[in-house]
Amino acid sequence: MNLTDQLGALESSLDELILAAASIPASSDSSTTPASVEPAVHAEEPATAAAESPVAEEKPKLHVSRPEKNVIGMTIGGVSVALSPEGVSELIEELSNARASMTVEQPNGLPPGWRFVATKNPVMATQRYANGDRLLVLRHTGHGWVPFSFSPDMVIELYAMLTKR
Fold first, then answer.
1. Could you read off the pLDDT of 93-114 as tens digits, one per residue?
2. Is residue 112 in some structural domain?
3. What is the pTM of this model?
């Protein structure tokens, strides 16, 4: 599946989730998060919810919880989903692909107060392309496999940065 297909699928899934969340009445309890490891979506029937929905629509809010060590719970406007480690990895990949295509780019410098988890001595793989570019793929414990492509000049610059004393 190419990036355009992935983005279309992600946008479609997000649209469906937002529509489902918007059809949930304000009185629904969003504090309960399913504890199963299987992805599960819980929502009222749209016809029932639409009849009880208030006229003024509020934007759904995202709530993320950790009900178990290997489960991430996400609730948007009363619609809850429990994600297994595999589901979290899939979500990270889909969001990463979508974020990479957005016109507002990531900042060039590290933002103040930025929180991160560093992976010491990550597993890595490399590949060389016919034009001289190099692919470096690093395995981050949180983000999974993260690929970077470098021109020959950047490879030299990277080597200089890593060996500088």
1. 999 999 999 999 888 999 899 8
2. no
3. 0.57
